[in-house]
Amino acid sequence: MPFDLVEEIKAPDDDLKIIGPVTARGVATSLGKEIYVQAHVTGSTELICSRCLTPFTKPFDVDCEGKFTESGTEQEESEEDAVEVFPLDGASCVLDDMIGHEIILSLPMKPLCDPDCKGLCPVCGSNLNEGECDCRKAEDDISPFGRKLLEAMEERSKKNGRPKET
Questions:
Q1: What is the DSSP letter of 108?
Q2: Structural domain contains residue 6
Q3: What pLDDT, in 10s, does the model give residues 105-132?
Q4: 107: burial class by Cβ within 10 Å (0-12, 13-18, 19+)?
Q5: Is the pLDDT of residue 49 over 50?
Q6: Measured between alpha carbons, how far apart are the two ends of the chain, in Å?
Q7: What's the rounded Cα separation, in Å, for the pair 20 and 8?
Q8: Do the domain assignments include residue 12?
Q9: Which of the four, 78, 103, 104, 157, has the lowest number of CB atoms within 10 Å?
């Protein structure tokens, strides 16, 4: 039986924030005590940039499939049958978990708001996408003695590698 849904779904993980309704188009096929579902799902999710820690919206476009069975009648998956199994909720399939799992798998490990994101200043934590921070200017205010000391430390670390921490 074909279906075409536009609904809000509950994310299976507290770290996943789905923005607005999700569109799912697919087919549900009865296989006796199981229902096999294939769907194409689109929508948007909110992620946190791994460089600048700014929230941003990223669209997703995933294909999902799963088997829904009555509680306690799950069959063991063979290597050939790598379809995830979900419980039936009465006589209906609740697609939230199946869709949520596929969305999570489609997301990047290190999400970026922009490929050219400059990230945060390692000294003061300012977002470098919003402009330069004062830390870079502070390096110019180092005394001549301090500058020589920094140069000597950099040379030593290049020659010997990083000193071992104790």
A1: -
A2: yes
A3: 999 999 999 999 999 988 888 999 999 8
A4: middle
A5: yes
A6: 66
A7: 6
A8: yes
A9: 78
Cα 164 from Cα 155, distance rounded (Å): 16
Q: Using CA atoms, how far apart are residues 26 and 66, in angstroms rounded to an integer?
A: 12
Amino acid at 143: S
SS3 166: coil
Distance of CA 17 to the CA centre of its chain: 10
- Phi, psi (degrees; rounded to nearest 5) at 52: -110, -5
Domain of 93? Answer: 2-106
Please give the tally of structural domains in the chain.
Answer: 1
Judge whether residue 42 has pLDDT over 80: yes
Please check whether residue 35 is in contact with residue 67, taking contact to mean a CB–CB distance below 8 angstroms: yes
Region of residue 136 (phi > 0: left; psi between -120 and 50: alpha; otherwise: beta): alpha
**The one-letter amino acid at 59:** P
What's the pTM? 0.67
The two tokens of residue 137 are 């200017």
Q: Is residue 166 part of a domain?
A: no
Residue with the two structure tokens 């499939």: 65
Going by C-alpha positions, the residue among 52, 22, 41 that lies closest to residue 129 is: 52
Q: Are residues 92 and 1 in contact, defined by beta-carbon separation less than 8 angstroms? A: no
Query: Which residue shows structure tokens 């798998």?
Result: 105
In a domain, 159, yes or no: no
- Which residues of the chain form beta strands (DSSP E)? 2-7, 17-31, 34-48, 55-69, 84-87
